[in-house]
Design goal:
Largest sheet: 8 strands, parallel
Oligomer: single chain
Structural class: alpha/beta
Distance between the termini: 73 Å
Order of helices and strands: HEHHHEEEHEHEHEEHHEHEHHEEEEEEEE
Strand content: 15-25%
Strand order of the largest sheet: 9-8-7-6-5-2-1-10
Shape: globular
Number of helices: 12
Radius of gyration: 23 Å
Length: about 425
């Protein structure tokens, strides 16, 4: 074999080797995404209850309450620390937790949380400072990702306060952190939080996100009392439950296993608490409206992230958050987000196919008064007769090709349909 032949052979072998590396890396990334977010993440987050007034004692108590209340058993596996945990950087530019709020450090807190069977999340921002004015990760992505991995963190919520408004910069900054997390040596879920302003459902998964916020921050209210045409207006008038439903209703094609439309936190159980969710008219929802949020978030495959005080939950809040039949709709392995099949001033009907061949149907009364409603399943494209299981009553309520009944103001009926003929 002459020198040219040897060179060609070496180049050919190198090409095969690089191709194998590429295939392996692609397979590893696909495995990473599927393992981490095959279904929407479920958990609890500090922000709407504590704001930035957080400390390790409260976090440990909340971890204990996740277990004792039944939340963990119901599927809420993540405990996420939002903004306010940071204490700046040390002499080596390593990010450190606030030594007063977290004297034992995040790694010790992660060990405590993990001992309960819970995963830990933290928060940062794609700018120099976070929304609350704390140390963030711009230009320290690789270093911070390795720090989070060394602390055994399982989830990162990555905000966008203080960053430029254009989409190109957002895509680049989020991808840089996503790549850093992939290279950190630990599997860490990446939640992109730029509030839907740059239509992240079109690009966030390719940028490395496993979930992406689609709207302004939720407030503890049913809906805003001001008209809006662009969801960005909700930043200043306050997004309620129904407003966010309307933003997400047409985004079903962009969600599925490996990436989810994030409708922001559950306000169930906050009951008008002052704080972040109490701003911009967030004076609380009725029990019926809280139950509707759970129904709609579940059928629309939103991450289920509670934010109330788990240590003092009343029975009404537990009944909503711990309904395993409703949670099963959200966590169905087929991973199809519901489509809105009926849309008018008074009514919305959402339908979601389930892996075993059943269908979930949510019927929402948008009106401010009780109203009667009837529907033939043919209107949803379903032929034949179905057993109708009411997931809030936890029983079969009938069988047939249609349903009729009354709904309270802002009530959502959530049914599981099983075909019988």
């Amino acid at each position: 074999m002459n020198t040219k032949q040897k060179a060609r052979t070496a180049i050919h072998c190198l090409a095969i080797f690089l191709n194998l590396i590429s295939i392996t890396a692609h397979a590893q990334n696909a495995h990473y995404d599927a393992v981490l977010v095959a279904t929407p993440p479920m958990g609890w987050m500090t922000w709407n209850y504590f704001g930035d007034k957080i400390n390790e004692k409260d976090i440990k108590e909340m971890a204990d309450a996740m277990v004792s209340s039944g939340m963990l058993d119901a599927g809420y596996h993540y405990l996420m620390i939002d903004d306010g945990w940071q204490g700046g950087r040390d002499s080596k530019n390593e990010m450190i937790p606030d030594p007063v709020k977290f004297p034992s450090g995040i790694k010790a807190l992660a060990a405590y949380v993990h001992s309960k069977g819970i995963k830990l999340g933290v928060y940062s921002d794609a700018a120099q400072l976070t929304c609350g004015g704390y140390t963030a990760s711009l230009n320290f992505e690789e270093q911070d990702a390795k720090t989070f991995a060394s602390w055994d963190v399982d989830y990162l919520k990555y905000d966008y306060c203080g960053a430029p408004s254009d989409s190109i910069t957002a895509k680049a900054r989020y991808k840089k952190m996503a790549d850093a997390l992939h290279n950190s040596g630990r599997e860490i879920v990446f939640g992109i939080c730029e509030w839907g302003d740059r239509k992240p459902w079109l690009w966030a998964k390719n940028a490395g996100g496993q979930l992406w916020r689609i709207s302004a921050d939720i407030r503890d209210k049913w809906k805003t009392d001001k008209p809006w045409t662009d969801q960005r207006e909700l930043h200043t008038i306050g997004a309620g439950v129904l407003d966010i439903v309307d933003v997400n209703a047409d985004l079903a094609p962009f969600a599925g296993p490996g990436g989810w439309n994030d409708l922001d936190m559950l306000v169930i159980g906050l009951n008008g608490r002052k704080g972040p969710s109490g701003d911009l008219g967030g004076t609380g929802c009725s029990p019926t409206e809280y139950q509707s949020q759970m129904s709609l978030w579940s059928i629309m495959n939103a991450p289920l992230i509670a934010t109330n005080d788990l240590r003092t939950m009343d029975d009404a809040t537990k009944r909503i958050l711990l309904n395993k039949e409703v949670i099963a709709i959200n966590q169905d392995p087929l991973g199809k987000q519901a489509e809105r099949k009926v849309k008018n001033r008074d009514w919305n009907v959402f339908m979601k196919p389930l892996k075993n061949g059943d269908y979930a149907v949510a019927i929402l009364n948008r009106n401010s008064s009780e109203k009667a409603f009837s529907i033939d399943w043919k209107e949803l494209g379903l032929n034949g007769s179905y057993t109708i299981n009411d997931l809030w009553l936890k029983k079969d309520i009938g069988k047939g090709k249609k349903w009729a009944g009354k709904l309270q103001s802002h009530e959502t009926k959530l049914f599981r349909l099983k075909k019988v003929s």
